[in-house]
């Protein structure tokens, strides 16, 4: 009877196990995830808390563990595009140890969200980069990869899912609005993602990232070239010309004067950009906030945008 029971249930158990594996093609890598998480948990549980070399220190009479602590929390969100051809390709890339790259979230063109790593763990998404004085963004940020080959517009379903994820992250971790940035922002010499079609203004309007007041930018003038009463070039052509009457506006328009002392390089640095390579920093700024003619040259209109973002960042 016992042998009959085993002969009945053993094939059944095997078939169920095989079915479970076949239903999730990532069963093996999920197992590896749990194994690594368990190893890190073991390290955290170890007491007394020590680092290599601490045995040479003059130790206290007892090990004393504080009762006041919690898990480290992320303070930035860095948004990427995958520069690959499908969500499946990216998921495979992030589950192969040899690639040495990962992200916390991957969002497909269809809006499906893959939460690949705990927000409290460090993903390998940012690489070498800098934002303000922060030189290790991997340790303080959440990485979000959007399935996009780097050239196409982002799908509406994808952006809608992204906005939902960002709302959850902002509420859960208390991430400041200004700390939602792009990969090119933190690594301007290496990266150009997300591409120029990314809707940064839409994100900023929803509370994720900074933007500028477009009306204020339009009404800005440079201190050194403020016209007085008429076009100076026209007056120089004909010194006998009568002054052209100036129409008096019916409504008061606020004019923001950009001082002659304004320095674009300093403004980029204060916003957060690494200006060691000024050309690259300028391109990254234009990729995020101008999104056309992405090059290392700042036009007067670009400088007006930069000035207003700089004032917001002070």
Would you kindly provide a brief summary of this structure?
By secondary structure, this protein is α/β, with parallel strands linked by helices.
What does the overall shape look like? globular
The whole-number mean of residue pLDDT values reads 88
Taken in chain order, the helices and strands follow as HHEHEEEHEHHHEHEHHH
Task: Give unreliable regions as ranges.
Answer: 1-6, 226-239
How far apart the termini lie comes to 81 Å
Question: What is the helix content?
Answer: 25-40%
Question: How many DSSP E strands?
Answer: 7
Q: Kindly provide the radius of gyration, computed on alpha-carbon positions and rounded to a whole number of angstroms.
A: 28 Å
* Discrete helix count: 11
Structural class: alpha/beta
Biggest sheet strand line-up = 3-2-4-1-5
Q: Can you give a write-up of this model?
A:
The chain is α/β, with parallel strands linked by helices and 314 residues long. Helices cover 39% and strands 9% of the residues. It contains 11 helices and 7 strands. It has helices at residues 2-23, 27-45, 87-93, 156-173, 183-186, 200-205, 214-218, 232-237, 264-271, 278-289, 300-313, and strands spanning 76-81, 105-107, 113-115, 141-146, 180-182, 220-222, 256-258. The strands form 2 sheets. A 5-stranded mixed beta sheet has the order 3-2-4-1-5, with helices on both faces. Helix 9 (264-271) crosses helix 11. The longest helix has 22 residues, at 2-23. It is globular. It starts with a helix and ends with a helix. The model is unreliable at 1-6 and 226-239 (pLDDT under 50).
């Amino acid at each position: 009877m016992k042998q009959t029971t085993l002969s009945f249930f053993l094939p059944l158990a095997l078939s169920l196990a095989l079915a479970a594996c076949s239903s999730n093609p990532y069963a093996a890598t999920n197992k590896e995830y749990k194994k690594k998480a368990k190893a890190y948990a073991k390290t955290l549980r170890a007491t007394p808390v020590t680092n290599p070399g601490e045995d040479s220190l003059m130790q206290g009479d007892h090990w004393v563990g504080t009762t006041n602590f919690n898990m480290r929390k992320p303070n930035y969100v860095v948004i990427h595009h995958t520069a690959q051809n499908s969500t499946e390709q990216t998921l495979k890339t992030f589950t192969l140890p040899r690639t040495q790259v990962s992200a916390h979230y991957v969002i497909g063109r269809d809006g499906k969200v893959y939460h690949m790593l705990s927000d409290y763990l460090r993903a390998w998404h940012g690489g070498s980069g800098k934002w303000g004085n922060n030189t290790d963004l991997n340790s303080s940020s959440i990485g979000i990869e959007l399935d996009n080959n780097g050239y196409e517009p982002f799908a509406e379903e994808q952006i809608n899912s992204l906005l939902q994820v960002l709302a959850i992250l902002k509420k859960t971790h208390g991430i400041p609005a200004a700390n939602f940035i792009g990969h090119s922002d933190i690594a301007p010499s290496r990266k150009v993602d997300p591409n120029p079609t990314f809707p940064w203004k839409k994100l900023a309007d929803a509370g994720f990232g900074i933007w500028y007041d477009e009306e204020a930018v339009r009404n800005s003038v440079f201190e050194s070239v403020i016209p007085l009463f008429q076009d100076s070039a026209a007056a120089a052509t004909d010194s006998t010309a009568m002054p052209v009457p100036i129409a008096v506006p019916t409504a008061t328009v606020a004019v923001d004067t950009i001082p002659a002392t304004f320095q674009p390089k300093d403004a980029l640095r204060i916003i957060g950009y690494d200006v060691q390579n000024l050309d690259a920093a300028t391109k990254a700024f234009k990729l995020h906030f101008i999104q056309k003619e992405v090059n290392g040259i700042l036009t007067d209109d670009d400088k007006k945008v930069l000035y207003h973002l700089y004032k917001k960042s002070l």
